[in-house]
Amino acid sequence: MNPALRLPAEWEPQAAILLAWPHAGTDWAERLAAVEECFIALVAAIARFQPAVVCVADADLEAYARARLSSARIDMDRVSFVEVPYNDTWLRDTGPITLVAAGEKGEAVLLDFRFTGWGGKFEASEDDRLVARLAEMGIFSNSEVQTIDFALEGGAIDTDGRGTLLTTWRCLAERHPGQDREALSRKLADWLQQDRVLWLDHGYLEGDDTDAHVDTLARFAAPDAIVFQACDDPGDSHHAELAAMAAEIAALRTADGKPYRLFPLPWPRPVLDQGRRLAASYANFLIVNGAVLMPTYGDPADAAAADVLRAAFPGREIVQVPCRDLIWQNGSLHCLTMQLPQGTL
Predict the structure, then answer these.
(1) What is the pLDDT of residues 239-258, one digit of tens each?
(2) Residue ranges of domains in the chain
(3) Is domain 5-341 in CATH 2.60.40.420, yes or no?
């Protein structure tokens, strides 16, 4: 470990949010018009609080995206574009995981892990080169890229910013079946500058093709608080697994041995698409400067989820962003975005 570097929590000051605009060459093609409306709402919500950096595939797409966002009366001074190839738009998993210097100079190290299309499920060659290409284009300041030949997605981890990492065994074991928990803990702690790794053995969502990313299940809200997706419907297929996860989380302890303050999120009604259950989770929220952007699904539980997040993040505005069309492709707004810590642009 390098004591001069640390992995900041998502609630720490940010320079911008990085995301990529959908287009006909991505998996969004079949429902592009509806999905674009979700992206417009997401960029609008981000731009209220901080800059957004939007990846586009070419100049024509930039002109189109700029026009769509401008027509929505978004503050375009807070939106910039960068032209770069990408297979899809899940920047949480293809963008950089950023370590920042502990001092005042603001140096950063952009960790560029291998992206394999969630274990080889999808073509990902362009996405795997995204971080390197962005760095070569010079959009980052006072930063260096460290390439790590190890499959890890940003959605698979969450940190409290003080040396504790939360992740799921299902995902990491699927990516690295030949390695035991001790070896994986050691590698994660070393690369991500963590003192300890907390593993969840339970928890999943039907329709999720990431092998149980933690950012759909449980998230730190503070060094002593965890927000997690609960299920209060005994007749739902998720009930037993999410109840077991809730018990695991209740048994976790902070670095100084205290129980975490827990914030269970309400369970939305099943969202079905042509008979397929979609992965609707309120845990897939995004923290930005001064606010929390939460996914909504047109469900009565939306308002209750906002109340939980309001209690978990006192002093932050809770902004609801419609995401029902996004979960058709198995992810929500946190999956689409990657925060860039203050000083990295």
Answers:
(1) 999 999 999 999 999 999 99
(2) 5-341
(3) no
